[in-house]
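Exercise 7.
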Amino acid sequence: MPEIDVYRQVSIATGSKLVFIAGQVAWDADGVTVGEGDLAAQVEQCHLNIGTALAEVGGSFDDVAKLTVYVVDWTPDKMPLFLEGVTRAATKLGITPVPPGTLLGVAALDVPDHLVEVEATAILD
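Solution. The predicted structure, written as tokens, is:
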């Protein structure tokens, strides 16, 4: 498989506790949308929210087996903005590369201002 700079192609999970983190959108701790209209900012916030949720259960991105990303009206020309957001979040979280994942284009999310949603599956010892 080709090596990709921003994420791993494969992850091996060990442990005994499965953690499923619901889709995270670009809300801050007060429920305010971060980066309205800015895909990179929203991707970054989603990943930071995943990091917060992982920390609350005693985990980190090292424990993530898979991410699933949903992007509104996805087209390949949005990839640079998406990768910018991932890179900024990875830098803040001190991770590189991010876990493997799947990116899916969707027509809409639950709130019209949300451009992206990210969910995670992690394995903790």
